């Protein structure tokens, strides 16, 4: 019983192009060794079938969103992704009127900084709506942010 290349070598694919993987654009081409290996397969199987064999033994393409998620998780930037998702759904969480005058601006630890457009809105939100907004943010981020800090626009700590 024959095994496929991926089964024989775990998750590694024996025709992956790895030599120039850190290069971009036109510099991302096969190395001399990789090009000779692919030419050998084309000579062996014929021009059309050889190209198909090369593709069949390479790692399948991944969706860009999966690659971005993997990079962010490797960098430990889950909070950045959580903040971006929160920004996209901000109007749904706090209501359209409040969203017009506020925006999630950043975070420090598990405290979310929300910029508020004017001091009158800041006063109203601080005294009447902060608890409700915090509960919705906690629920939406599944406890990712546990505190809320309302700041005037342009005055957020760095």
Give a quick precis of the structure.
By secondary structure, the protein is an alpha+beta fold. Helix content is 53%, strand content 12%.
Descriptive overview:
This protein is of the alpha+beta class. It has two domains: 5-56, no CATH class; 76-152, DnaA, N-terminal domain (GMP Synthetase, Chain A, domain 3). It has helices spanning 5-8, 32-45, 47-56, 64-75, 78-88, 90-94, 96-101, 119-140, and strands at 102-108, 111-116, 147-152. A three-stranded mixed β-sheet has the order 1-2-3. The longest helix has 22 residues, at 119-140. The protein is rod-shaped, with a radius of gyration of 26 Å. The N and C termini lie far apart (61 Å).
In total, how many beta strands? 3
Total number of distinct structural domains: 2
| Residue runs with pLDDT of under 50 for 5 or more positions | 1-10
Shape verdict: rod-shaped
Number of discrete helical segments: 8
CATH homology superfamily name of the largest domain: DnaA, N-terminal domain
Strand order of the largest sheet: 1-2-3
Structure keywords:
single chain; 158 residues; alpha+beta; GMP Synthetase, Chain A, domain 3; 2 domains; three-stranded mixed sheet; 8 helices; 3 strands; 12% strand; disordered N terminus
Topology:
Layout lengths: L4 H4 L23 H14 L1 H10 L7 H12 L2 H11 L1 H5 L1 H6 E7 L2 E6 L2 H22 L6 E6 L6
Parallel strand pairs: 2-3
Antiparallel strand pairs: 1-2
Helix pairs in contact: 2-3
